[in-house]
Amino acid sequence: MSILVGKKVRKDFGTGGKQEFYEGKLIDFDNDDPQWPFQVQYEDGDQEDLTWEETLSILVDVESFTDEEKAGITMLNAAMLETPTKSRAASAPPKKPPAKAATKSAAKPAAKPAAKAATKSKTKPAAKPAPAPQPMPEQAAVKPASAPNEQAATPVPVPSTSAAKSVPAPPASVPAAVCPAKSAEKEPSASTDAPGPVPYTDAATAVSELNTAIDSIESRYQTSGTVNQKVTLALNTPAAAISFPMSNTQAKDALAGLLAAAVPSAFGHGNQTVFDSSVRVAKELKPEHFTVDFNPEAAGILEQVRMALVPEAGSVRAELHKLNVMDKGGFFKPHKDTPRGADTCFGTLVVALPVCYEGGDLVLSHGANPAVTFAWGKKLEPRYNWYTVLKNKDDHVPAVGLQWGAFFGDVVHEVRPVTSGHRITLTYTLHRDAAPDPNVDALLTRANTLYHSLSRALASPDFMPAGGHIGFECRHLYEESQLAQAESKLAAGGANAYASKLKLKNEDAVVAAVFAGAGLPVTCVRILSGEDLDYVLAKMPTKKDSAKFGSKEYIENSFRAMAVTPEEIDSYTEGQLSEVTGGDVEWIGSYKSAASKWAERYFGEYFGNEASHTEFYTKAAFMAEVPAFSSRRAPAGALTGVHIHSKAAPAVCHKQPKMHWWVPPRRKYDLFL
Ligand SMILES: O=C(O)CCC(=O)C(=O)O
Ligand SMILES: [Fe+2]
C-alpha cells in the first residue's frame, strides 16, 4: 500500500457550488488504521487522514504511474469491486492482500478526521467525513465480558442458567474484534496470549475446507449388539410362559398360544392406520397383552444407545411398544417410524428373540450412507455342521443371543421377507432425558475439526467480507414441533442453546453446536422437496389446508400419496431455495437428507405402526448468519461445553491485531480499470 505514498492528490474544498482545489501529496500509510489509512499533506501545510475510497478519488497524474504501480493498485482495487455474491462463491478468484505498509514512527493523534477537519476548517471548509464509517480497530479490540481468554483453551465450570443469562451477549450488529491473527506476522506474545485462528488464503479455500470438515463428520444413526441372556415371555392369558431360546420344533407347541393371540399389524399411511398386505405382513401383541423379563437398561443397551446416538443427553429410556411376529412370507416395506410429537422421543430399539428363522433381514438406509443390514436370522443358525449332530435343523436351539439394533425414527428401514421359521422381535420407542454435564459431552469430541475450520474461515477477510449465511442441510428429518423448539432455543441463546436442549439428532446437533459455539445466530428453514427443485416453506400448512389438495399419484416404492400441483406448492412457499435465501448462502456439506415431500403431511407418508395425526417429518436446514468481516469475531481455541452454553462467541482478541485486511464498502471505481 505504501505504493501510493508520495503520490500527488488534488481535492476540492469549495463550498456553495464554488470549486476551490488544494494540491498535496500522500505522506504516509498506516496499516494499523483500516478506516483512514492514508495521510495527506496539502500545499498550505494542513494534514488530513483519508479513507482508501477518498484517496483513490483524489489521486492525480495517474497516467504517469509505472505499470508496476498500476498493477499493484488494480489488484488492491479488485478486492473492493467484487459484489458480495461473487466474493462468497467458491469460484471467486483468490484476492491477494495488499502489501504491508512501512511502519510509522511518529505516534498518531488518537482523534481521527474530526480533529483534522477542525484544523483545516480554520482555512478551508471541513473535509467531508468518510462515508459509511467502519468500526475502528480500537473499538473492536474491546474484549467482550462474556468471553474471557481462558475459555477458549480450557474447559471451565459451566455457569448456572441464571448466571449465563446475566452475561449480556454482544448483539450481532455491535462491532466485535476481528482476529485474523496472521501467524507469520504475529508478535512475540505473553504466555496467556493464545494464538488466533490462521486465516485461509482465500474464500475458495475457506469454503472447500469447511466442506471437507463437515463431510468428515461421520453419520451415526444406528447402533447394534448382542446380549447373551435367557428371556421369558408371559401372555396375559392362562397359557404357560414361553422361554427363549427355543428350537423350531419346540416352537410348534410353545408359540401356539402366542401365534393365536397375535393380531395382524397395521401401519400408518399419512393420517390413517391401514392394513395393506402389499406393505406389511406381520402380527403383533400390544404390551398390555404380555410381560417380558427383559430390561434393555439392565442389559447395558441404553447406555450404548446414548453414547452412539444422543451423547448430549443425560440418559435414555426405552418404552416397550409391541411384540412383532413374522412367519414365512412376513415382511415390512421401507418406512420411517411414526413421529410421535413427544420432544423426548428420538428413535426405535428392536430386539430379536432367539428362535430360528431365515430371511427377515432388517435393512436400514440413511442418506448417502451405505445400507446397514441386521441379518440376525443367519446368526441364530447352528454354528457347526448341524446335520452330523442334529437329526433335524429344526431341533437346533440357538445360542442365547438377543440381537438388537437401535436407530433414529426418521431412518428408512425395512424387514425383508422371512423365508422360514418365526421371526419374533420386541420393539421399543427410545426417549432421551436430562442434560449431562456439558464438559463431558461426548458430542463435542466430534465437533472440533469443523469448529477449527469455521474459526479460520471467519478470520479470513476474503470469506464473506460483507457477511452472508452458511447453509447446512440437516442430515435427519424432524418433526415440526422439534424444529420449532430447536429454532426458538437457538434464538434465545445462552443456556437454552446448549446442544442437549436442542434435541437435534447426532450430526445435526454437532453442527448446531459448532455454529452456536462460534456465536453465529442460527435459524432453521423448512424445505419441501419438489420434482427438480427444493422449496422453502414460508409457513407450515394447517390441517384445513389439506382439503385443497386433490390428485392421487404414486411416489416412492409405489406407496399411495396425494400430490400437489406447482401452484399449490407456490402458495405455501416463498419460492425456490436460492431465491428465498437471497443468494448470499454458502451451502456446505454434500450430504443430502431424505426427501420430505409435501404429500407426507396428510396423505402420503407410510409410518411404522400407526397413523400420525399431528406430526410428520420435515426436511430442514440451518442458516448460520455470518457478520461482515469488519464486525465479526473469529473464535479461538477448542470448542467446549462452555461455548455452547454461552450465547456469545468464545473468541477473544488477545491483542490488537497487527494487520487488518479491511475491505471498504463496495463501490465501482473507474480508476485503473
Ligand atoms: O421387527 C422389526 O425388525 C422392525 C419392525 C418395524 O420396523 C416396526 O415395527 O416399525
Ligand atoms: Fe419400523
From TrEMBL:
Regions of compositional bias (Low complexity) in chain numbering: 84-118
Please list the residue ranges annotated as the Fe2OG dioxygenase domain.
317-432
Q: Where is the signal peptide?
A: none
Q: Which residues lie within the region annotated Disordered?
A: 84-201
Q: Which residues form a coiled coil?
A: none
InterPro entries, per this entry? Answer: Oxoglu/Fe-dep_dioxygenase_dom, Pro_4_hyd_alph_FE2OG_OXY, Tudor_AtPTM-like
Query: Which superkingdom?
Result: Eukaryota
Q: Which Pfam families match?
A: 2OG-FeII_Oxy_3, PTM_DIR17_Tudor
Designated name of the protein: Fe2OG dioxygenase domain-containing protein
Organism of origin is Cymbomonas tetramitiformis
Per the UniProt record, the lineage of the source organism begins with: Eukaryota, Viridiplantae, Chlorophyta, Pyramimonadophyceae, Pyramimonadales
